[in-house]
Amino acid sequence: MKKPWRFQTAHIAIVIGSLLVAESLPVRAAIQITGVTQTTGAHSDLAIDGPGWFILRDRDSNTELVTRHGDFRVDINGYLTSVHGFRVQGLKNASLTLHGDLVIDRAGAPPATDPSAHIESFTIDSTGLLWVRLADGTRFIRGQILLQNFAEPDRLIRLAYRLYGSQAAAQPRSEPGPPGSAGLGLIRSGELEIDPEPMRLTAWSASLQTGPRAEGLLTWTRNPTDLGIQGDGFFIVRDPITDESFATRAGAFVLDRDGWLVTYQGERVQGFTDPALVEVGDVRIDGLFRPAAADPSAVVNAFDVGWSGYIRVLLSDGTRYISGQVLRRSFARPNQLQSVGYGLLTSLDAAQPGEWLQSGRPYLSGIRSGMLELVNVPDDVLAQRRTFTWFPQWPAPVNSWTPSFSGTWLRTQQRRGTGS
C-alpha cells in the first residue's frame, strides 16, 4: 500500500488557549515513553528510541508544544514541520550554535560547493544531525534536532492528536538536548511510533460511575469528526467484518481512507446514507451524492455535523449540500448494555432499543460537532493507529454554514499498515 498523500502548508494556526473551555476538564493521558515502531522509509518520519519529546513551535503565537509523534514533512519553504504546520525545533545553523526552526536549504554548504547544485536529498541521523546532500555530491550538516524531557510527563495537557502543551507542572529539563545525550533516546529515521495514544474521556473514577446512561461533560476539540451527545441517546456503530452493532457515547470518530466515518477501531457509524434520508447504513463522507450541477471532479473541502446530525458538505467548487445524517438511538433499559472496551456497549436487544433519534434542539439536545463527551462509562481509553492531518476551513463561511469551531478542519488518513 502506498504512503498516503501529505498536506503541505506554510502554517495552520490552532488557537491553543481555547481548545479546552471552562465547562470542561483538562484532558490528560498516561504517557507511554517508548512505543512500538513501524518502518515507513520516509526520511522525515522520526521515532524516538527511549525518553524524549520533539519540540514544535506555533509561529503565529510563538507557543512551544511537544510530541512523540514524528510524522514530519518538509513544507514549501523548506521547514521541517508537523502535520499541524508547527515547526520542529533544534539547532538551526550549520555550526550548531543557534536555537530555532529547522530548515533544509543550502545555507552552511562549503564555500567550494557548486552554487548551481540543488538539494538532492537529506537524512537525519541517530543523534538528530540533519545532513543535506547536493546534486554535485557535497554533503554537509545543516542543523540538529533537539529533544525535551519531563520528570512528570503525565502532567502534560493534551491539546490535539498526539500534541501536548509543555507545562511547567510536568517539570521539563532546564534545556533541551541532542538525542543520545544524558537521559534522552536516539532518533530512528524512517520509522514511526504506532502505539495507540491514550485518551482519557472519563471525568470520574470507575468507583464513582453510575452506568452508561449518565451524561458526561463536553470538551472542545475543534475536530469536525469528534461528536458529543447532549441529552439522550447513543451512537450506533457496526463492525464491518462481523456485522455486530454496538452503542457508544464516545464520539471520537475519524474518516478512514475510503471516507467511512469510523471509531478508532474501525467500526462504522450508522445513520442515513443518502440525501433523501431514507437508507440507514454506514455513514460515508466522500462527495458521492453531490448535486447534479456540481463539478464531477470537485473534491470534499470541508464538512460539519449539525445538531440533528445532518452532514453538511462543502466541495472544492463551492457546492454545499446535505449528504446524510448521523443518527442516535435511545434504549428503554440502558443499564442492560454491557461494556466490551473502548467505550463500546453490547447487548443492544436486551436494552430494548427505541426509534432512531433524528432531531436535535440547539444547546438543549442533539449532536455537538467538534466536541467530545467525558464519557461516564468504565472505559477510560480510546485509541487506535491512525495519522491525522489538518486542512483549512473554507474561506468566508456563510450563514448556517459557519462552523461553531473556527481555524482548522480535520482530515484523517490511515498510514500504511496501521489500522483496519
Helix/strand layout:
Elements: E1 37-39, E2 45-49, E3 53-58, E4 63-67, E5 70-71, E6 73-74, E7 80-81, E8 87-91, E9 99-101, E10 119-124, E11 129-134, E12 139-145, E13 147-148, E14 157-160, E15 163-165, E16 186-189, E17 191-193, E18 218-220, E19 227-230, E20 234-238, E21 245-248, E22 254-255, E23 261-262, E24 268-272, E25 280-282, E26 300-305, E27 310-315, E28 320-326, E29 328-331, E30 338-341, E31 344-346, E32 353-357, E33 366-369, E34 371-373, E35 387-392, E36 408-413
Antiparallel strand pairs: 1-17, 2-5, 2-16, 3-4, 3-8, 3-13, 4-15, 6-7, 8-9, 8-12, 10-11, 11-12, 14-15, 18-34, 19-33, 20-21, 20-24, 20-29, 22-23, 24-25, 24-28, 26-27, 27-28, 29-32, 30-31, 35-36
Could you describe the 3D structure shown?
The chain has 420 residues and is mostly beta strands. It has two domains: 16-193, no CATH class; 206-413, no CATH class. The chain contains no helices and 36 strands. The protein has strands spanning 37-39, 45-49, 53-58, 63-67, 70-71, 73-74, 80-81, 87-91, 99-101, 119-124, 129-134, 139-145, 147-148, 157-160, 163-165, 186-189, 191-193, 218-220, 227-230, 234-238, 245-248, 254-255, 261-262, 268-272, 280-282, 300-305, 310-315, 320-326, 328-331, 338-341, 344-346, 353-357, 366-369, 371-373, 387-392, 408-413. The strands form ten sheets. Strands 3, 4, 8, 9, 10, 11, 12, 13, 14 and 15 form a ten-stranded antiparallel β-sheet that branches. Strands 20, 21, 24, 25, 26, 27, 28, 29 and 32 form a nine-stranded antiparallel β-sheet that branches. Strands 5-2-16 form a three-stranded antiparallel β-sheet, with no helix packed on it. β26 (300-305) and β27 (310-315) form a beta hairpin. The protein is elongated, with a radius of gyration of 23 Å. The model is unreliable at 1-32, 200-211 and 376-420 (pLDDT under 50).
